[in-house]
From TrEMBL:
Gene3D superfamilies: TonB-dependent receptor, beta-barrel domain. It is found in: Cell outer membrane. It is a multi-pass membrane protein. Its main location: membrane. InterPro entries: Beta-barrel_TonB (IPR000531), Beta-barrel_TonB_sf (IPR036942), Plug_dom (IPR012910), TonB-dep_rcpt-like (IPR039426). This is Outer membrane receptor proteins, mostly Fe transport. One of its GO terms (biological process) is iron ion transport. The keyword Membrane applies. Residues 1-29 form the signal peptide. Residues 52-160 form the TonB-dependent receptor plug domain.
Amino acid sequence: MRLTNLLRTTVSAAVVGTVAFGFAGVAAAQDQEGPTTIDDIIVTAQKREQNLQDVPIVVTSLPAETLQDAGVRDIKDLQILTPGMTVTSTQSEASTTARIRGVGTVGDNPGLESSVGVVIDGVYRSRNSVGFGDLGEMSRIEVLKGPQGTLFGKNTSAGVINIITEAPSFTPGYNAELTVGNYGAMGASGSVTGPITDQLAFRLYAGRRVRDGFYDVDTGDGPRSNTDDANQDFGTVRGQLLWLPNDNTSVRVIADYTSRDEYCCTGVQIRTGPTYPFIDALSNGTGQRPPAAGFGPLPFSRQAFANRDTGQEIEDKGVSIEANIDIPSMNATLTSVTSWRDWSGDIGMDVDYTGADIAYRPQDGGYAYTVENLTQELRLAGQNDRLDWLVGLFATKEDIGRTDSWWYGPDYTPFLSLLLSARLNAANPAIPVSPGIIGCFTRPGQTAGLTGLQGCLATGGTGRLPIGPGGALVTVPTAQATGPGFTVGQGYQDAYEQESTSFAIFTNNTWHVTDQFDLTLGLRYTMDEKSVDGLQRNLNGNGGTCAAAAANAAAIAGALGAANAPTIIGNFCLPWSNFAYNNRTVSESFDDGEVSGTIKASYRLNEAIMAYASYARGYKSFGYNLDRVQSGITPTASLLFPSEVVDSYEAGVKMTLADRTVLLNATYFDQTFSDFQLNTFLGTAFVVESIPELTSRGIDADFLWFTPMDGLSLQGGLTYTKTEYGEFTAADLSNPGNFPQLSLLPGATASFAPEWSATASINYDRDLGDNLRGGFSLAAKYMSDYNTGSDLLPYKQQDAFTTLNGRISLGSADERWTLELWGQNLTDEEYVQVAYNAPLQGSAFQTTVQPNGTYYNPALDTQTYDAYLGQPRTYGMTLRIKY
């Protein structure tokens, strides 16, 4: 075969091996069953093939066999094998966030780029959600911890998930997989590979998976008909060509397409607050989970409430071309990676996640976003006896489109009325709790007195006052709630277009000072330019209710007190109902450059032990908050937030022991993030604040043992992390008005930052005789307690938990067929992915500083809390056929 000849004769066998075997390396190519000694583990963390133990970076390397045994199909599944990493989804699978060492970017806002970069077959995916999907046939995954900006570019300030899929082979082959499981799970996938000519090979993969939802949904007022949620229904296809035109050149072309059409994701009440009676009154059925005694935490349940659909349609497609050209005269390789990707998501949403018809977003394109990205990378890498050198450039053009909408249900106006009147009733019991007082505040020309606002509120909006003869009730027109409420139907439709261009030049060079001592220097300069244009439009008279209430500010102040008037008017002028957004245009542009880089020193004490120390500076680009953002009731003038940078120091040791069969690595890290981009939901809108300082310090450790028992290997990892915000005050924020909702952060442990995180896995596979092969695997992950909300409210705390995956297999010795019984989350661990404040359903933070020095007082917390839950126990059977 031509490929065999090339591997024997080309100046750089690694060039062909890199492409032909999907960056898994020549060693892995020679042993498709996976590594059997530490020397077999090849990684490309520094954009060149190296043994894992020679790389002065914290890398968790996971071969295909380990990934398959742990049931890894996407980056969320990857968590169970990677200590110190969490991956969560919120209102849809389009809102996916990866975090490493407690640092990551909430994925709900497409204006923010990722802190953890996702790279698939050399192509950078600019948002975690864009990299979330069925990964198909994987060769290996490398999780690089800490800033990797020199070689992987911006937006890798916390780390990189580097995914390498299987490439075409010149040896004909096919495989197929059929899966069935609980929750109605069914899946089928298959691939075929082989030569087209002696210079051209192909691989084609396709997969389809369906599953019922994990939630039972009470549809309340309707019109939703689906009674489950978080289902699965997607298909993917990936085609590849590998062209080897001569002994020095290889070209790999990949085209892929994925489509999802699912229902996801409803929130579930984990604490129901005092607003429950209003939801109950407006909904068919209870409308949400009834509160616990004393409004305490609720028992874990997958019972959800949503009267509106939560559909999601996601489409992801792209093409990449990677060319590698050996230059024998320079002992170098020129690499070109070109890619085009197009991602779109269209989402439906029940905003309040109750059975009442309060607010929603239909799945009609009005609540969606798109990401189109074109990238080009060029690298020239070579080496001699003393120097491994690399220079390159990278350019990208990205277009993001976002649409945002809001629809009022018929229950919105009476619900807001019940909320307002309940607050007024608590201060003045003479004012009844009523669903009909909105018009009291919005009646044109309203006055403060008994025949105006005061009388209207006292009668619940009826205007029936005891001012007739003998105290008889008389209807007073000026005391009736005749002002406008909120129009049922669409309230607004906004559209944003963000254009980005980025250009970078970089170099990474390792000087072999002696046979034992290496120095690595990397530098990168990145220039970013971004612009945003948007149109914020109120529809169907939306904003009129806000304007009417604002026009009556004097009457409201006269009747209820000047200090209370801004808060009351603010309830009428929330971001979705504010008249200030009537045909408001947004147009901004900004450009900035940043230097990032690294310096590393490594010393090999002997053949078994290498020690290293490093410094790295990472960079995450500035951006725009593509949302309605306001201070009080005034829209924020600029949506821009600044760049985030990190300075990271590491010192570690890598040990290869027991005749090269045991790996034991440990690293101390100290990272300081400046202007950390915090994206948080304040109950009414997402805001982005730059927190002055976030530190992440701790230890990473990894262990791997290829035991003397044939087919038995043990792998594990441990991460201790202390990720904390620095002290800051309101004056340190871009919008000081956000400080009350962030007042729990100064000096506190960041969200999604468990102090301890540990993984362990065991894999056993061997011949059983009679042409049979069998095995089993177990993979477990432990995380200590952590908070799942970016505002750190106590009700969002997740207790420590452990998840366990397992698999038992039996098949033919030549692996022509294998039958597997598998289970994910075998102990059915109940845990929360993300907890959040249910919109309009109570309040957690107060308007004044509380005795504990923050704006939070648990005794005054009336907030209803919802959560997106982790997956339950799933189990099933998979049949694999291979040739």
